[in-house]
Amino acid sequence: MKLALIGFGQAGGKVVDQFLAYDSEIGGGFVEDAIAVNTATADLHGLENVPEDRRVLVGQARVNGHGVGADNELGAAVTETDIDEIQHAVDQVPTHELDAFLVVAGLGGGTGSGGAPVLAKHLRTIYTQPVYGLGLLPAMDEGGIYTLNAARSFQTFVREVDNLLVFDNDVWRSTGESVGDGYDRINREIVERFGLLFASGEVSDGDVVAESVVDSSEIINTLSSGGVSTIGYASESVGTSGDGLLSSFTGSTDDFDEGNATNRMTSLVRKATLGRLTLPCDVGSADRGLVVATGPPEYLNRKGVERGRQWLEDETGSMEIRGGDYPRADDTDVGAVVLLSGVTDVPRVKQLQQVAVEAKETTATVQANAEDEFAALVDTGGELDALF
Ligand SMILES: Nc1nc2c(ncn2[C@@H]2O[C@H](COP(=O)(O)OP(=O)(O)OP(=O)(O)O)[C@@H](O)[C@H]2O)c(=O)[nH]1
């Protein structure tokens, strides 16, 4: 499907930057346009792939290009004020080619956390295309302010988009990794999963057309349940003709190969669903689902996808599970992407909200105490007078 990507804040901009790289790497064709919005000049300069004329600085009058310092109310306020600056950039998007907008932001900071919901709301009042969000949840150890920001932004963002796709940094961290290296790896995981899904609706005329190629309308229908979505992905290297299943084609019967490919695809769908999701949840709470089989066309086995799809129907109890192929002739992996939409049983969100409520209460108590303590510090019991 053709997307206009809008990265809001530092994390949003970096992920959009990586989406651009991934799209050209796989020849995906899902990025119709890409814009980065930020309150910090330095963050915009740090981007590599978003064209310079698609970078928008907001809030200059209030923060002078220095960011909002994790104040997401300020992030929201400056976005409201400067919405025309962003609209000016969106005006250049060839919207007649567009299937949807995707607004990407880290929810723990200030700029993206506050600005992304404001922009989503604005876009939905103007355009007929769906506006999706991709929200990145902070790791738990980032601290109270990030958790509180994320919980409040999540609540607002999910209300203002047609569907909120979520990626939880906490689940994807590795111990012993520097923050920078960690984000580079995590961002790759993000764009691989979401990128494959979006590219799957973009099979061009020159590509090999498989038996049942996923269409962008199937992605849109799956996401039209609204609410929150998560993605699972599993893949297996099939190598080139020297190893993997291809080599087992030679010297074995077609029946055996067919059965092998069917089993492989069915188990990839299960692995994708039961393995690490971008946002862990109870799969049974999903409202809709989409199974996409990716890889060289000869491995995209219809029976395998169908069995995987039926299995997901049983797991979710939903009748709205779609399935299809994304053939990639030059790929050495065969994989399954599983999109679960409208999930409602998400312990991580409840945990985030609980910690946020505690953080809010603690902040209020600390502030009240600080005021009393400061008054006590300055007060001399009437012994001394201030100058004026
Ligand atoms: N996945 C991912 N998450 C990131 C990355 N950088 C930051 N984050 C997360 O995003 C949250 C918000 O950080 P930023 O995007 O830097 O904040 P901002 O929107 O620019 O807002 P301010 O810096 O407060 O103006 C953090 O709490 C992290 O959890 C990144 O490169 N990848």
> What is the CATH T-level topology of the largest domain?
Rossmann fold
Radius of gyration equals 24 Å
Helix content: 40-55%
Instruction: Give the full name of the CATH homologous superfamily of the largest domain.
Output: Tubulin/FtsZ, GTPase domain
In CATH terms, what is the architecture of the largest domain? 3-Layer(aba) Sandwich
What compounds are bound to the protein? guanosine-5'-triphosphate
Largest sheet: 10 strands, mixed
Based on CA inertia axes, which overall geometry fits?
globular
* Name of the level-1 CATH class of the largest domain: Alpha Beta
Indicate how many domains the architecture comprises. 2
Distance between termini?
Answer: 67 Å
Overview of this protein structure:
By secondary structure, this protein is an alpha/beta fold. It folds into 2 domains: 3-200, Rossmann fold; 216-341, Tubulin/FtsZ, C-terminal domain (60s Ribosomal Protein L30, Chain: A, 2-Layer Sandwich), CATH 3.30.1330. The chain has 14 helices and 10 strands. It has helices at residues 9-26, 41-45, 60-63, 72-81, 83-90, 111-126, 144-160, 169-172, 179-200, 216-223, 244-249, 254-274, 302-316, 347-378; strands at 3-8, 31-38, 55-57, 100-106, 131-137, 163-168, 228-237, 288-295, 321-327, 333-341. The chain has a 10-stranded mixed sheet with strand order 3-2-1-4-5-6-7-10-8-9, sandwiched between helices. Helix 7 (144-160) packs across helix 14 (347-378) and helix 12 packs parallel to helix 13. The longest helix has 32 residues, at 347-378. The radius of gyration is 24 Å and the shape is globular. The relative contact order is 0.11. Bound molecules: guanosine-5'-triphosphate (GTP). The site of guanosine-5'-triphosphate (GTP) has 26 residues, from helix 1, helix 6 and helix 9.
